[in-house]
Amino acid sequence: MHILFIGYGKTSARVAxxxxxxxxxxxxxxxxxxxxxxxxxxxxxVQQLDLSRLAPIDWVYVLLSPGQSTPEAYQQTYLDSVAPxxxxxxxxxxxxxxxxSSTRVYGQNAGEWIEDTTPLxxxxxxxDILLQMEQAYLSAYPERCTIIRPSGIYGSSIxxxxxxxxxxxxxxxxxxxxxxxxxxxxxxxxQMIHVEHLQESYIVSNGQPQLLHEVVQWFQQQLHLxxxxxxxPYETGKRIRPxxxxxxxxxxxxxxxxxxxxALLQQADVN
Length: 271
Known about the structure:
By secondary structure, this protein is of the alpha/beta class. 34% of the residues lie in helices and 22% in strands.
């Protein structure tokens, strides 16, 4: 198959490599030059996308990310790009459109368990924009679109967690956090090619929610830093159960985030 990636960052590169090795033709669209040799890389602005000179495209992955976290950046990156992408693909025999969104569209924030069928409650403007993007693609590609909602992606950097370990002396509540290793996310995205009947959406997470203050305390222990103090038992955040992912038979290779964090600490030799 001819597979197109719109947006080509760390996750896309991992997916593309696996699919190239499986014998597929890969083309990518991004804003900057790419150097890996398992794809044809094109530099284009998605707002002015031109795919007229490409061979027929069978499968599309959309993995865009804004340069900033402002509502304006989300609007431009996620929602304003839908129409140009759909228009540019109109002449292509697209069998499946896979759009990476986020579990941010689930706004539950009191420690609730959520899964794929939990009602969507965008908690802010950015999450509402993501939901509008999802709905736009589902409308444009009925029966041919699958939305992927990853939780927090980890595995390529621990800089943020190390910074929190050094700066936090207390934490205001018991905040549930969820994560998926970047390699597991990439494997799930690549293996979708082989699934005959895909669901409309999948949460992709490791199914092991962690209290954020406990994760930071673990880093503080590893770095021989004073442990932060929890100042309230009040619960926030959500606990994510990726039921459709689990029911699909997909098996995680990274079941213990702390083993992964330890390996990254050792590689970085952070003190």
